[in-house]
Amino acid sequence: MKKIIITTFLLGFFLPARSQNVNSAPVVIPGLQEWHGGNGQFTLRPASTIVLEPASSQALSATARILQQDLLQLTHIASLPIKTGMPAAGDIFLSLDKADTILGKEGYELAAARDVLRISGIENKGVFWGTRTLLQVLEQDSSHIHFPCGTARDRPRYEVRGFVLDAGRKFFSLDFLRQYVKFMSYYKMNDFHIHLNDNGSYKHFNKNWDSTYAAFRLQSDFYPALTAKDGSYSKQEFRDLQALANAYGVNIVPEIDVPAHSLAFSQFRHEIGSKKYGMDHLDLDNPVTYQVIDSVFMEYLAGPDPVFTGPEVHIGTDEYNKEAAEQFRAFTDHYIHLVEHYGKKARLWGSLTHASGKTPVKAKDVTMNLWYNGYADPIEMKKLGYNLISTPDGWLYIVPAAGYYYDYLNLRTLYDKWEPVQVGKVRFQDGDPQIKGGSFAVWNDRVGNGITEKDVHDRVFPAMQVLAQKMWRGTDTTQAYEAFATKAAAIGEGPGANMRGKLTANNGLVLQYEPGTHKGKDLSGSGRHIVGTTRTAIRKDGIHFSGGKSFAETPVPEIGYDYTISFSVNPDANNASNAVLFSSPHATVKLKQQQTGKLGFSREGYDYTFDYTVQANRWTQIAISGDHKGTRLYVNGTLVQNLEKQKVAFPGTNDSMRIVQTLFFPLKYIGDTTHAFKGVIKDLKVWNTADKLK
Predict the structure, then answer these.
(1) What architecture does CATH give domain 2-154?
(2) Where does the Beta-hexosaminidase bacterial type N-terminal domain lie (predicted)?
(3) Was domain 509-687 assigned CATH 2.40.50.140?
(4) Fewer Cβ within 10 Å of end Cβ, the chain: N or C?
């Protein structure tokens, strides 16, 4: 390090004045640890190639292919060839440098000259992170082909940079998980902890354990009744997900949560549920409990082709009644050893202060998520020898629309005050080797509250940017939060990704169709247009739909928060229930929602209805506006209804649940591929601002 600093200083002292005008560090999240600026810029060209160092070609081939795909998505330059050898002008050169031990396993050096851009690291993962830096900088360049000359030497401050997703109480599609692997990787977040089983609150389901929601998300051949009916992953799907994550530098940590939060197991085997503490607690005095749960873990760990392929498995062990502390400790120790028997390392939630006792629980090579200091005292757990992941609930827990913890994290406070050595009110010394890193979490406690994948992502995206910065860089006092947030706004989710449904245009009008504009081909200053129609007639008075498979396809699938969609509609008199006005893979907007006859929308199994019926055989001007809080209907310029903050009370309790009535507006089809309405739509405008009525 001293040699680099001295060299940089001497160059600056002796070179002519014009060379002092060097490139400043490019904006990247997480920020670069070191940057030594040069002059000029590297430029990708149509003839550019991704070149692999011959000795490293096999190790780096997967990284090169992913970079090739990403550059095609981002730059739209024809797919760059991949070859082995030495680079020429305009090439990207990837190599391994085992001698550069200062960088560590995840570190990399990116050296951009005018002719060649070189990325090297001790291991493939470091080189891969270097490609993410390259892509983020290219994303912010208006032409997506320029990188400033200079050298970055970058490495993470913390080994574990994680995110926990509760897929037990809310199902997330496999596509969502695959997108999240890539999204996390784009920000060099390397630890995706998937919570595979959980249950709702007993008191919210009429205090009936049999009807309380519970789910286990994996295919089970040992216990087919265990697999959730409303959403699950096959064994092969989960293997493939882990393989994808491995290629993107992300470690997937599957969690089977026992012996609390375990109603999914006791619902199909009643005898293993606790009669004393509740059926979401397993009966730890019943030997059948061990037989069943052993079999569950073994199903995913045993054999030549195990379902859990990564190095670590999370065994849960959280929030069990402390009256049974000794049994709980024995149970925890048993499953640590079981996981280790199959060659994995165990993770667990911190509960051993809450469950204090004499029964020993293995600590060596075991990693603990510290979430609440009252359950696991951080100082005590460190003395016991656990590796620690900082996951403090008061800082890092998102519980969507619940009214407790955070709906959206306090990003300014996190940026200014938190990094993984901060665990609740305890702060360890910088560089403590037992603090492996941190992880933030989404817990979907409010089962059935209408939250969608899109809503979860809206909460996670800004948090991912800030926490990626804090887990890679630590505390950065050189840049205020406001400056960071401004720069972060220019960086998205990765090449080709748009989970937030963001659409841009200079004047805010991102899509438009007006009658008589060359059959819908000439649409607004945005340059977007209708790309195809089936069983529709585009006439001067609008687009005519004939029901069934009748649609006009647009170039954008949907728009996310904030937006306004305005259009005029003239429905026929004989429209059936569930007749669709707009549709996409994620949502539909209906002229007649189910049997109500009223305007409404559906997404992710939830159906919402506005208290308004669109009259047949007459023109009505409709505007629908949405943000992360809810969805509003305007008719002829007047607000008719705001679907927001509706609450449902739980009988016999003082508790209630807020229902989330949001909508990512579907735009892939005007009409639908199966249940289109009959009638005419005209004057369609799509704005990327809320409540835009003119």
Answers:
(1) 2-Layer Sandwich (3.30)
(2) 26-154
(3) no
(4) C
